[in-house]
Amino acid sequence: MPATPITPASRFFRPGITKVSWIVSIANIAAPSRAELNAGSDLSKDVADINGWMVSGAKIDTPDLNSRFVSNIPGLTSADESAITFYASDTGSDVRTLMPRDTAGYIVWLDGGDVAGRKMDVFPVRVLSVGKVRSMGAEAARLTIQYAVTSEPSENVTIPA
Q: What count of other Cβ atoms lies within 10 Å of the Cβ of residue 31?
């Protein structure tokens, strides 16, 4: 008897669906309230590019004298270097005013949109830098904000109603 197939993923294209928010204060990152989510700032309209925002794990090798095969066990986890590139305003009235260097808060990823019952990831962060991307190319002016992930993110948290 063959293995039972998994239910296929409901595939989607991020632009137009995924939302990202900046939230200054969350009491419990494992269960943000609807009021806390609503108090945040939806950054989605100004996001030009995304880098990182993934928790990665390391492995620890566990060789023994009984075998030439080197087995391993899970080790430390960490967040990849994470940044968001935003569109810049010529007046300076953009994400720079919301997230200056050293500002602490939370980046919340609502991958399937802000829909109750779906999942979100909550990253506690501090702004490392707000870099101005300068170019002579035919592209809109941009800012890249780099973030330090300051503690373990809460992943796959159910979005409240």
A: 13
